[in-house]
Amino acid sequence: MATAAGKPLTVAEFCTELGIARSTFYDWRQKGRAPRCLKLPNGDLRIRRIDYERWLTSLEDAA
Predict the structure, then answer these.
(1) How do residues 30-54 score in pLDDT, each as one tens digit?
(2) Are 25 and 19 in contact (CB under 8 A)?
(3) What is the dihedral of CA 22, 8, 17, 62, to 10 degrees?
(4) What backbone phi and psi angles, to 5 degrees, belong to 49?
């Protein structure tokens, strides 16, 4: 079993953490701007915490 820190995020949890609408997540995903996702056999998506952290780091402004 994954630890709480290693537990993948649901789309709802991801959206809540960033304060965005679900539609924004799916728009970013369609445009290739969202973090990598796991697609479960039932079709649900999950975002690994490490992929989320890497994605956030990639968005940092170097200025």
Answers:
(1) 999 999 999 999 999 999 999 999 9
(2) no
(3) -100
(4) -55, -40
